[in-house]
Amino acid sequence: MVIPIWLRILKRDKYFMLQENKIGKIISFKTTNGDEVVGKVTGQSTDELTIQQPVILAASQQGLAMVPFLMTADMNNANVVFKTSNIICSADTSEGVADAYFENTTGIKPIRSGIIT
User: Fold this and answer.
1) pTM metric for this prediction
2) Where are the domains of the chain?
3) What is the pLDDT of residue 16?
4) What CATH number labels 22-106?
5) Which of the listed residues 29, 33, 44, 72 has the most CB atoms within 10 Å of its CB?
6) Contact by Cβ (8 Å): 74, 62
7) C-alpha atoms less than 13 angstroms from C-alpha of 56 in its C-beta half-sphere
């Protein structure tokens, strides 16, 4: 059986992307099955990443929508554990998407510093 080069690199460097402490940050990551997940990191180890109320991005008639990662689970303050071996890449979430995630999961609209009109 031939193992694809990207999988060999992923297995060799599987801890590389999680060396930085991400606890408390809202991040985006791609799973090996292609889902793009957004959520707040509540736990992190070399083998697992715990995300509070993870959502995936889905196309809708109004544009992108945030859908609960687990449709049948009670996602109110749920912590979902992901194996780091199933994560291809991760990055800090853009400010606009992080704000939308925060508003969708807490009901609080974030306010950025600046002049309020």
Assistant:
1) 0.77
2) 22-106
3) 40
4) 2.30.30.100
5) 29
6) no
7) 13
